[in-house]
Predict the structure.
Amino acid sequence: MRETCMLSLTPNEVDQVGEYCVANTTPLPQCLLEHSVTTANKTERNGEMAGSLAQCAYLMSTARTLRPKRILELGTFTGVMSLALYEATRDIGSEIVTLDIEKEFIAIAKDAFQK
């Protein structure tokens, strides 16, 4: 059986890895950065149900690689991840369907897409 190796990083090393990732990653679209802040400001608990910017970057990279024709998202919240998917696939015109039941969050998501 193969053993698993787990790296133990100090808090300083974690910060250095994070700084390296930010410095060497394609910048996120400005609209996504702004919507992430809006979500944090307009929702309880600072929008913790929204994807983080790191998760957005990963999702965008995955969507660009897979080039999906259709995307279904269940649980839109304020649309942070939906906006990330849109930005990643707009050049190929993917159809994105995203669903939520909370009218307050749907309104925030619609506002982001209208901008």
Summary: Residues 53-66 form the longest helix (14 residues). The domain at 51-115 is CATH 3.40.50.150 (Rossmann fold). The helical segments are 11-23, 30-42, 53-66, 80-89, 103-114. The mean pLDDT is 92.
